[in-house]
Amino acid sequence: MQRFLFWRHRAATATRPAGPRLELPDHVPFSPAKDRREMQRLREQHTSIQQELHGNYTAPLVAPTAILDIACGTGLWALEMAHEFPQARVVGLDIIMPDPTENLGPEMPVVPPNVTFMQGDAMQPLPFPDASFDYVHLCLLYAVMPAPHWPALLREGVRLLRPGGWLESVEALPFPKKNERAGMATVILWFSELLRHRGADPLAALKIAGWLRDMGLTHVTARETTTDADVDDQADAIASATALIDYIRASVIEAGIAAPEQFEAVAAQALAELHRSSRESGFNTYVAYGQRPTT
Fold first, then answer.
1. Which of 39, 153, 134 is nearest to 81 (CA)?
2. Confidence (pLDDT) at 256
3. Distances from the Cα of 58 to the Cαs of 54, 103, 166, 205, 290, in angstroms?
4. pTM of structure
5. Considering its fold, how many domains does the chain have in total?
6. pLDDT of 232-275, one tens digit each?
7. For a designed S-S bond to 283, which of 111, 172, 180, 291 qualifies (C-beta 3.0 to 4.6 A apart)?
């Protein structure tokens, strides 16, 4: 199942019941509204990625004892990792700290005691000593991370790795698939252009593996993810595409990327395509990971 994986962070107007409120800094390119609907969309997005990766990670982890999720979003990934690795200390860090109780349910009735959430800005030095973690995780930051800051963020992640530890990144590439239909292909290209206009890098997914090698990590692996689903969920694909179209409409027009009439015509074409068939609708998703040398 493919979804449009196009944001992670919440708006500066969001309030969280856990901890004091932080304002989102001006340098965040995208900051969509935070509400219950958005929380549910982020949970569904997490599930979609989990299906593509066949789990919560692809790096060859062996009994990690300290795990960090940078820009942890809803906190669901950190909760699940804490449940999977009860011997590990798991830390989720985000500009607005999540309320982990919102993710509880029959499969996880209580918050695992080994998980902690902290407020922090991923575009600042991270508040941990060198070599603090066995595994550092980043997911879907391409729309919120200013392009020039990517190397600094990854260097911070590498700094925090213990010898033998792994850093893993999962990112979307907002460019049309080869067989993407014309309407949705245009919407995706407009979104990519809007990311550039806002100072983000829509090609970050393709660069991360190279950056990790340049920073001295070994066993660097990069691949495009796939899904085993034979039939896409058409209603989900349409809802996800509609959310993307609605979210970028005003900004694309304001930036002069498309005129209002042109945008509406292409949006209608894109949704009509999805109503006919949702197959192969969405972004490519890439995973890259590397290991800090032991010597």
1. 134
2. 97
3. 8, 23, 10, 16, 11
4. 0.86
5. 1
6. 567 777 887 888 899 899 999 999 999 999 999 999 999 998 88
7. 172
Q: What is the DSSP letter of 108?
A: B
Domain that holds residue 61: 36-177+199-227+283-291
The strand pair at 284-291 and 218-224 is best described as antiparallel
Residue 108 covered by a domain: yes
Q: Which two tokens stand for residue 144?
A: 């919120």
Q: Examine residue 61 and state whether it is found in any structural domain, yes or no.
A: yes
Judge whether 167 lies within some domain. yes
* Whether the Cβ atoms of residue 277 and residue 180 lie closer than 8 Å to each other: no
| Domain CATH code at residue 53 | 3.40.50.150
Between CA 6 and CA 174 the distance in angstroms is: 8
Residues 82-132 pLDDT 10s: 999 999 999 999 998 888 988 888 888 999 999 999 999 999 999 999 999
Enter the DSSP assignment of 200: B
Give the Cα separation of 147 and 196 in Å (integer): 8
